[in-house]
Inverse folding.
């Protein structure tokens, strides 16, 4: 029989907006910054875990398998098995899902599952022509051959390409993620005004959550090597309004596009962890579970409309558990783009889409905005790709405990045309 899997604790770093140059923390630095206080407050030793699983998309060269590097730096012992998972934007949720299945099936009792991403450390990449020139020069035999190879040099060989830009472009459709959001906005008639209004609300909600202190139990202060500290998500713009956002120009489809820098998620650094435990581990260590994972679901679709991934994954989850949209009291739907979130809401309320694509009898209905991303999301908070799926699960649990709600879903779209969803119930 499947065993219950509990979320007993979790923490994250502040999400720090990428600015000029690499930020103060690498992915492993971030994982350690929020991992240390999390492990320090547990009633068991760090080496009591069975495994460490970490989502990370942009692994840097100095930290291959960041899960293992983080585990060692966290003092979890040389015998700790640790591995890194990657499914683009869903990587942080994939770490939870993988741990959930290990515990559910009885092969583990205590797992540390997280996500870490430092997008400000994304590398600059040499053009392929430049790489071939360097290779030819290095392989030339004799002075004459080396001189001949040298004179094949072209100035363009030294013009680096931003690795992140390539990483956010789908190699199948050759559309970047912003362009896929434009496709979704076109399919469902999402207007620029709607997108800007949604984005302004995201900033307002996060600013309120910070002012009320609702994130204090979730966000751990991070300390850099030069003595500076970071104690809050610094991308929030409380003064954002639909009117100010309307002044920004489209980024991906000029001049008529809907997607701007103001209504898109921010390029950000951050990490997040959750502790997963079996019933046996809860009893053995005297733990107090916050929530139980009821189910999870992954789905895939055309990469050009990847933003609709949450509709497919969450609907399949609801069907299997005999639930409707309205039965879910709290939602975290990662805000890759305002048009993408609004497109998902429109799809669920579109009778033709629900019949033909989701196999429903009619429209699924509407999600009450008061139940969705109640403290803002990636537009105001940022979207460190390998971390976001973990953060939305952690935050969903904390929001449900704060609001006294029982059932919630965390879901996200995934670059490459996929979606993930997780059904959580408070204990």
């Amino acid at each position: 029989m499947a065993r219950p899997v509990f979320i007993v604790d979790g923490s994250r770093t502040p999400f720090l907006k990428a600015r000029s140059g690499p930020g103060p923390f690498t992915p492993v630095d971030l994982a350690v910054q929020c991992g240390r206080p999390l492990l320090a407050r547990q009633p068991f030793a760090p080496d009591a875990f069975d495994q460490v699983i970490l989502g990370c998309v942009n692994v840097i060269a100095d930290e291959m398998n960041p899960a293992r590097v983080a585990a060692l730096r966290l003092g979890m012992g040389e015998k700790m098995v640790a591995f890194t998972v990657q499914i683009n934007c869903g990587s942080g949720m994939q770490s939870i899902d993988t741990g959930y299945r290990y515990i559910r099936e009885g092969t583990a009792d205590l797992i540390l599952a997280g996500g870490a991403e430092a997008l400000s450390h994304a590398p600059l990449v040499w053009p392929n022509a430049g790489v071939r020139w360097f290779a030819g020069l290095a392989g030339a035999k004799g002075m004459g051959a080396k001189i001949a190879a040298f004179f094949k040099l072209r100035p363009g060989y030294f013009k680096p390409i931003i690795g992140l830009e390539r990483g956010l472009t789908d190699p199948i459709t050759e559309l970047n993620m912003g362009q896929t959001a434009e496709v979704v906005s076109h399919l469902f008639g999402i207007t620029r005004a709607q997108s800007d209004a949604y984005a302004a609300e995201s900033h307002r909600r996060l600013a309120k959550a910070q002012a009320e202190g609702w994130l204090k139990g979730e966000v751990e202060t991070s300390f850099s090597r030069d003595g500076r500290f970071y104690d809050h998500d610094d991308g929030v713009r409380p003064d954002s309004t639909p009117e100010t956002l309307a002044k920004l120009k489209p980024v991906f489809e000029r001049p008529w596009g809907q997607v701007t820098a103001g209504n898109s998620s921010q390029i950000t650094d951050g990490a997040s962890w959750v502790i997963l435990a079996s019933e046996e581990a809860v009893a053995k260590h005297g733990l107090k579970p916050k929530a139980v994972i009821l189910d999870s679901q992954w789905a895939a679709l055309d990469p050009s409309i990847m933003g609709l991934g949450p509709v497919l994954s969450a609907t399949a989850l609801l069907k299997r558990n005999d639930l409707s949209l309205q039965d879910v009291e709290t939602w975290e739907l990662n805000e890759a783009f305002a048009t993408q979130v609004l497109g998902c809401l429109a799809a669920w309320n579109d009778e033709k889409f629900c019949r033909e694509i989701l196999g429903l009898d009619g429209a699924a209905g509407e999600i009450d905005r008061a139940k969705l991303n109640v403290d803002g999301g990636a537009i105001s908070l940022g979207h460190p790709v390998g971390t976001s799926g973990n953060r939305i699960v952690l935050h969903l649990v904390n929001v449900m405990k704060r609001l006294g709600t029982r059932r919630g879903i965390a879901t996200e779209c995934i670059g490459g045309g996929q979606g993930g969803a997780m059904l959580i119930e408070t204990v």
